Each structure stands twice: as C-alpha cells, then as structure tokens.
Amino acid sequence: MDEAAYGWDAAEIHAAHPHLSLGQIRAALAFFHNRHPEFAS
Length: 41
Fold this sequence. Notes:
The protein is an all-alpha fold. Helices cover 63% and strands 0% of the residues.
C-alpha cells in the first residue's frame, strides 16, 4: 500500500520495510497491479 499511498518505488518500500526482500516487494506489486490496473503507473 505504500506505493499506492505515497507513490514509492520498490527501493523506497524496501528502505521502509527492510525485512522484506526486493523480490518479495516486486512480486507483491506485480500481483496488485495485475488485479488493480487502475493503479498501474
């Protein structure tokens, strides 16, 4: 939700949530954008 709320990219989300890997973040963003195309950039 950080991306949708703040416009953060994967690296910024990772900096805020270092317990998540970049791969996990990118997978979550891809999953979200596939189901909610209105939020895709």
